[in-house]
Amino acid sequence: MERFVSQNPDPVLRINGDERVIYSNKAGELFLHEWNIRVGEKVPISIGNLSKRVISRKYPEKIQIKVGKRIYLASFYPLEEDKQVEVYGFNITDYDKLKEKLRIKEKQYDALNQMGRIALRRESLQAFMDESANLTAKSLDIEYSNILEYLPDGNFLLRAGTGWKPGLVGEAIINGSNKYQAGYTLFSKIPVIVRDFKKEERFEAPTLLKEHDIASGVSVVIGKIEKPFGVLSVHSKKPRRFTTDDTYFLSSVAFLISEVIERRRAEEELRQYKERLEELVKERTSELVRTNERLIEEISGRKRVEKDLQNNVYFLETFLDAIPSPVFYRNLEGIYQGCNEMFAHILGFPKERVIGHSMLEFRDQFSKAIEISTFYDRLLLEEGKSISHELKVRSAIDGNERDFLVHRATYSNISGEIIGIVGVMLDITERKKAEQALTDYAAELERSNKRKEELEMVINSSPVIVFLWKYEEGWPIEFVSENVTRLGYEVKDFTSKGLLYRDIVYPEDLEKVADELNMYVEAGYSDYTSEYRIFTKSGEIRWVDERTVIQRDENGEIHLQGIILDITEHKKAENALLQMEEIRKKEIHHRIKNNLQVISSLLSLQAEHFSDKKVRESFQDSQNRVISMSLIHEELYKTGGIGNFETFDFKAYLQKLANELFRSYLVGNQDIHLKLDIESIFLGMDTGIPLGIIINELVSNSLKHAFPAGRKGEIQIKLHKIEDKKIMGEDRDTGRRESSEFLLVVSDNGVGIPYNIDFRHTSSLGFQLVSILVDQIEGSIELIRGEGTEFRIKFREDIY
By mean pLDDT, which of 257-261, 278-282, 525-529, 583-587 is the weakest? Predict the structure, then answer.
C-alpha cells in the first residue's frame, strides 16, 4: 500500500491526532513547503483544527489549498482505527477542464477508501472480493467486472464479479492460455487494454466474453509477478477508450486486493500455527498429567508416606534417592540440575555441593570420563536417541575405579525443546568381574574335558536345573541338564519329543513370565530373574526361582541360558510365617482388650473406696474411656479372623459402646432412650479410637447433665458419609482405597448447654478431651444450641 501511495502523482499526506505530519509522498512536499514545515512537525492551526474535526466526526471534508499559482482541492479522510487523517490533493487550477476528471478521480479514491474500510472490518475474503468487484465497476461506470483466481492447473476461476449471468460467479472456469486475455495478461506482466475485440490481433475473446457480447476491456495482474493470485478485469459491451487514470485505478484496486489476500493468508497461517501450538501444548500437558498420575500410583502403596508428600520436587528427590544406582540430570551447559544421594556419594560430596556446579569441576573424580561423557553427550544430541555406554569412575566410597553402564537420554521442556540430559549409572563392576570369571571358566573348560565332566556331574547332582532356551515362540529347549528328573521329566522329553518350556509353566503365571522376559530383552538387559510356578510331569505344581543370562550372538540372535531352583518349601515357609504374623496380631489385640478390661475393673473397685460423688464420677468417666478403647480392640480381634487387623466395624462398636454407657449411667431409669442412625463403615485405629472417646464423652455428658430430676428424653447418634468425591489410591492389600468425608452428630433434647459456657475453653476434662481429639483426627466441631444440644463433627477417613 505504501508503494502505491508513494508513486501517486498527486499530493498524499497523513496527519496524526497531534496535528503532526507523519507521512508525505514526493508530490505532497509542495504542501509542506507552502506551510514551511517538514515531516514530523505540526501543520498550520487551520489545517490542524480541520484534521481534529474530521477525526472526531469520522466524516471526510474538503478544502481548497493555494500553492503558488496552483490551486489544490484537498480531501481529508479519517482513519478510524489509527486516529489519523489521510489527505489527498488534486490540482484544480484548470477547473473547467479537470472538473469531470476530478469527479472521476474522487469517485475512484472514494471506492479505494471504502475497499480499505471493508478490509479493516475483517469480513470474509469472498465478501471483500465481491464488494471490491462491485465498487470497481461502479467507479469506472462499466457493466462488467471480474476477479479471476489463477488455479494450479493453469486455468482461471471466476472468483468474484458483477454483471455476469447468474450461476457463473464462483463456478465458471476460464481458459488460462495466453491466446486469451487473462492468460495473455499474466504472460505480458503489464496492464492489457482492448478497445475493440473485433480489431484485436494479440488474442481472442474467451467464450465467457463472447456469450455476453463484450466489446472492450482492460485487465491487470493481481499480486506479485513471480507468484500472482490472478487477474482483475473490467469489460464493456461498447468499444471504449480506457485512460491512463483508469488503468492506474484498476492497478490500485488489484494491489489492494493482493495486499488483503496476502494479509489473510498470513493471518490464516498464524491461526493454524497457533492451533498446532495449542494442540502440542495440550498433548504435552496431557502426557505430563498421565506421567504424574503414574508416579502417584507408584508411591501411593507406601502406607502413610503419601501424607508427607507436599510437592513434586520433594517426590522427585525421594524417588531418585530410593534408586540404588547413581542418577543425575544436567542442562546443556553441563551444569547439574539434580542428582540422587548415590551419585553424590560416588563423587564424595553432599548433594548441595554437586547441584548447580559444572561436571568440569569434578575432573579429579571423573578423570578421563569427562572426555568420554562429552563425546556421548554430543552424539546423543545429534542422534536424538537414548544411548548406553560403559564408563570408569573413581568412587569416593572405597577409592577404587568402578565400572558403570551409563544410560543417557535427553529431556525437554513443555514446548518440546531439549533442555538437558539425564543419566542413570548402573554399577557393573561385579558383573564385569563375573563376566571375566565366566570367560576364564570357559577357557578352563576347553582345556580340560575332564573338568567339564566333573562340572556336569556336580550340576546333575545339585538341586539347580540348567536350561538353554531359544528366544522363540514357546521357548524351545536346546539343552537341559540331566537332573531335570527332579521334576519327573527326562531330557528327551524336551529335546526329542518336542515338549516346550511354555508347556510346563503354570497357565496363570505364563503371561507374566512372557511379558517380563520380553521387556528385559527389548530393554537390552543381560540377565533376567523371576519366581513362578511350573508343573512336574506328574501334574504337581511347584514354585521355581529362575536366573537367566540373555545372550546375543554376532548375528543378533538371542539365546537364553539359565537355571531354575525348586523353592516350593521356601514358599510354604513364607506362607507359614505370614499366618504366624496374623495369629500374633490377633493375640496382641486380644491381650490389649483383656488388659483394658482389667484396668476397667480396677477403676470400678477403686471407685468403691470413695464416698465423694465427684470422685466416683471421675472414676466412672475414666472407666468408660477405658471401655471405649477396649471395645475397639475387641472389634479388631474379630475382624482379624478374616485377615484384616488394621480396621474394624465402627457401627457394631458404636452400638456396644452406647449400650455400655446407658447401662453405666441409667441404672433404674428407663425414660431416656437412644436412637442410632449409623452407616456401616470400617475405620482404622488412628481415627476409631479418638472418635470412640469423643462419642463416649459427649454421650456421657448428655446422660449426666441433659435430663435432670427424672426428665424424659432421647439421645441420638448419627454417622454418615457427606461427600461423594473420592480420592482413589493404593491400599495395604487390595491396591485400592477411598478417602471420604463423614459427619458425626451427637444430640439430645434435654435442657441444653448454657450460652455462657464455651465448650472449647472450659475446665471440663471431657470437653477438653473432645477438642484435642477432634484436632488429632484433623476434623472440625460445631455446637448448635436450641431445643437441646447438638454437636456436629466432620472428619475425613481412608475407607478400605
Answer: 583-587
